[in-house]
Design brief:
The protein is of the alpha+beta class and 454 residues long. It has three domains: 104 residues, 3-Layer(aba) Sandwich (D-Maltodextrin-Binding Protein, domain 2), CATH 3.40.190; 122 residues, Dipeptide-binding Protein, Domain 1 (Dipeptide-binding Protein, domain 1); 192 residues, Dipeptide-binding Protein, domain 3 (Roll). Helices cover 24% and strands 23% of the residues. It contains twelve helices and 20 strands. It has a seven-stranded mixed sheet, with no helix packed on it. Helix 6 crosses helix 8 and helix 11 packs antiparallel against helix 12. The longest helix has 18 residues.
């Protein structure tokens, strides 16, 4: 038996409705998808293979032979089709259907109206065909999210490594699912998940929001804790439309001050991301001649970010040396910060300290913050050339070719300074002696060696 501490009771065990990290983690152990996250990408799970068409618009997934729910009923491609339509249905109100399923042909209309053709077809019991609105190079990673998991027609049967044995407030007991296709890789007979950290074998990271939402405070490093990489960035946004930071020379002064204090700061691509060495431009960035004269800016941040007070204090000192005064707006919560500072950016705010995390192993989630029409573009920065490059990047199926396009995108961001990446946060986990190993997927799912390969 393995006992693990989780920060909160899961809000739901419904794969279509799971949005907080505790729910996503537990749902991932009870259920399986076409693929599963592993290392820096995905590997087969319920699907044994898949291939995109030459133009990238049609993906075909081939299910394993003999798949069964935990109640011994067969799992078929129709279960996936039915479950995806359920997730998209307006009455389900699935946050991740809105975030992850909109690239499927017809999905946007179906999510609003509950009717119309959707590009998901069960060709036969073992073949699922997905037709997209436009190519999505990382669809095999998207379908590893729980919102894409099949759910049974009725009852509580599961498709993943475990089934739910019991659930009480603050305590869930999972038992090995003997009908899981890869049950031989599931070593614990039972896993107990509890909100109490007493007498447990490990304490899981305490981030409370799912990956893809702005980063929030996590637990402090425990004794003997391991620092683990994430796909997150802490960004200092510079509001470039109207206001004093519309002047690129003033943005350069802020950049130089940040560079002086946070020298060696990360690029717009976290180091844990595949393609990092290709995408991050080499050599020294050419600095613009910075402007001079006094200036005063207003910076907004949230007190929920444990790093913020120190970052703000140090940044304030460096800006003062550059002749830039700083007014501060501290918001008690992330929601309050978004009301004050956006997106979209509100009047009277020039700088915003707000992080972001990628949902899968591609730079798209972070680079897609900056197009002109992005709802998350706090800087209100607009470069049509950047938008054209993004349009090419999201349609490029070859990884190396896409990395080269993303290198051009990162160069544009570094030259124009709509934001400055200040840090790439780490997560922390505590394991007791006797737990054999622990792996971490930077997008937020955990795995224990020999327990699952999620």
């Amino acid at each position: 038996m393995l006992r693990l501490a989780i920060p909160l009771d899961p809000a739901t065990l419904d794969p279509a409705k799971a949005a907080d990290l505790p729910s996503l983690n537990v749902v991932h152990e009870l259920n399986a998808g076409l693929t599963r996250f592993s290392g820096r990408g995905v590997e087969p799970d319920l699907a044994e293979s898949w291939e995109p068409s030459e133009n990238g618009l049609v993906w075909t997934f081939h299910l394993r032979k003999g798949l069964r729910w935990s109640n011994d009923v067969p799992i078929t491609a129709e279960d996936f089709r039915r479950s995806w339509l359920r997730a998209l249905a307006p009455e389900t109100r699935s946050a991740y259907a809105r975030a992850e399923m909109q690239n499927i042909r017809g999905a946007r209309r179906y999510r609003v109206t509950g009717s119309g053709e959707v590009g998901v077809e069960a060709v036969d019991d073992r073949t699922l065909r997905v037709t997209l609105q436009h190519p999505v190079p990382w669809l095999d990673e998207q379908v590893a999210w729980p919102v894409f998991f099949p759910v049974p027609r009725s009852g509580t049967a599961t498709s993943g490594p475990f089934r739910l044995a019991s659930r009480n407030k603050g305590r869930l007991v999972l038992e090995r699912n003997l009908d899981y296709w890869n049950v031989s890789a599931v070593k614990p007979r039972r896993v107990v998940l509890t909100t109490s950290a007493d007498r447990v074998d490990g304490v899981l990271p305490r981030g409370l929001l799912a990956a893809g939402f702005p980063w929030v405070k996590t637990t402090t490093p425990p004794q003997r804790g391991r620092r683990l990489p994430t796909l997150s960035l802490g960004l200092l946004w510079l509001v470039t439309k109207e206001g004093p930071l519309a002047d690129p020379r003033l943005r350069e002064r802020v950049y130089v001050a940040a560079l002086h204090r946070f020298g060696g700061q990360p690029s717009f691509v976290p180091p844990a991301m595949p393609g990092y060495s290709t995408i991050v431009p080499g050599g020294n960035r050419l600095l613009l001649p910075p402007g001079d004269g006094p200036a005063r800016l207003t910076l907004a941040y949230t007190e929920r970010d444990a790093r913020a007070p120190l970052l703000v204090r140090e940044l304030r000192g460096e800006l003062a040396l550059a002749g830039i005064g700083l007014n501060l707006k501290a918001a008690p919560t992330l929601a309050a910060l978004q009301r004050v500072a956006g997106p979209p950016a509100q009047a009277g705010v020039d700088l915003v300290l707000l992080g972001w995390s990628s949902e899968f192993f591609d730079e798209y989630n972070i680079l897609d913050l900056f197009p002109c029409a992005s709802a998350f573009n706090i800087a209100r920065w607009c470069d049509r050339g950047y938008d054209r490059l993004m349009s090419r990047a999201v349609r490029e199926l070859d990884d190396e070719a896409r990395y080269r396009i993303e290198r051009e995108l990162v160069t544009k961001l570094e030259d124009s300074v709509p934001a400055i990446p200040l840090y790439s946060p780490k997560e922390h986990v505590l394991l007791n002696d006797g737990v054999r190993g622990f792996g971490w997927s930077p997008i937020g799912f955990y795995e224990l060696t020999g327990m699952t390969r999620s």
